[in-house]
Amino acid sequence: MARLIALLLFVAAGTATLSACNTVSGAGQDISAGGHAITNSADKAKE
């Protein structure tokens, strides 16, 4: 019974870790897109 509980906790921790990675990755992409938009706006203002 203890092994089953340990296995379930391990699976739950792994699932939480993977979902956190996806969240951080998505946030990084959003920040990157914002940076590109600012760069493009600055380039257009120079012209």
TrEMBL record:
InterPro entries: Entericidin (IPR012556). This is Entericidin A/B family lipoprotein. Residues 1-20 form the signal peptide. Belongs to the EcnA/EcnB lipoprotein family. Residues 38-47 have a biased composition (Polar residues). It comes from Paraburkholderia edwinii. It comes from the Bacteria. Keywords: Cell membrane, Lipoprotein, Membrane, Palmitate, Signal. The keyword Cell membrane applies.
